[in-house]
Amino acid sequence: MNVIRKSRVTFRPVKPLIGAVVEADREALFDPEVVAQCRDMLEERTVLVMPQVHFTNEEQLAFTDLLGGRLNLTSEATTNKDEDVYQVTLDRKINRAPEYVLGTFFWHMDGMPMEMPPPLATLLSARRLAPKGGQTEFANSFAAYEQMPEAQRAEIEDLRIIHSVAASLRSIADAIPEAEKGKLAIGVEKERPLVQLHKNGRKSLIVGSTADRIVGMELAYGRAYIARLNEWATQPDFVYQHQWQAGDFVIWSNTGALHRVVPYARDSGRMMHRTSIAG
């Protein structure tokens, strides 16, 4: 794993197939040239970590705007005054739909069931940590595709998957009060390719907990196939687990990395601030 040094920033890989720590002076992180280098490195390493930079909302939004076009993804669900910042918390006083946060305990990509193109990238800053749990895990779905046997790549190349909100909440459906289910857009779904071609020529698997069924395949067979793909895509060599410290800032390619959080207590006080870049 080669350390990559630029004029004002160093990228230090954390695992052979995924992740890099960004080392730079805080002010350099708002230099458009450095941000462009981060964007290029994001395509290569999938996940970038900026340890303990302690961004404010304004700074996180400023960095988001430099990296790409800002996207408001479900931010209206929380009480935060910065409308493009989503507060990731299980506190119902702050988050009006914490069931979606419970859904993040399972491997997923953001925005897959929605009509709009899924976010290009997700940016997350740690404001308050849980005493136990709360680590975020990332699985490189570029590597998952590229390491797959050639015959299987050919087999899945043209398959299409229906992604749905219902699928993303299926594992926790029994825990959702009936009165809340009507607020969760259960019926929302979107058809997407299983293999996504990116502008840089690389391909990634688009799977995760939102993947409900394969178009044209009998339901049981399709769901079993999806389960096997999820298992393949999240094997240890493809996965990086981030141990959060307060003030950490992490960016990842939303359609190049599955992610999930290690479960934490509802009353833990854990709070993360998320921004998104349009796909």
UniProtKB/TrEMBL annotation:
Domain called TauD/TfdA-like: residue spans: 11-275
Source superkingdom: Bacteria
Keywords: Dioxygenase, Iron, Metal-binding, Oxidoreductase
Keyword Cell membrane: no
Record bears the keyword Metal-binding: yes
GO molecular function: 2-oxoglutarate-dependent dioxygenase activity; metal ion binding
Cofactor(s) named in the record: Fe(2+)
Family: Belongs to the TfdA dioxygenase family.
Name this protein carries in UniProt: TauD/TfdA-like domain-containing protein
Species the sequence originates in: Sphingobium yanoikuyae ATCC 51230
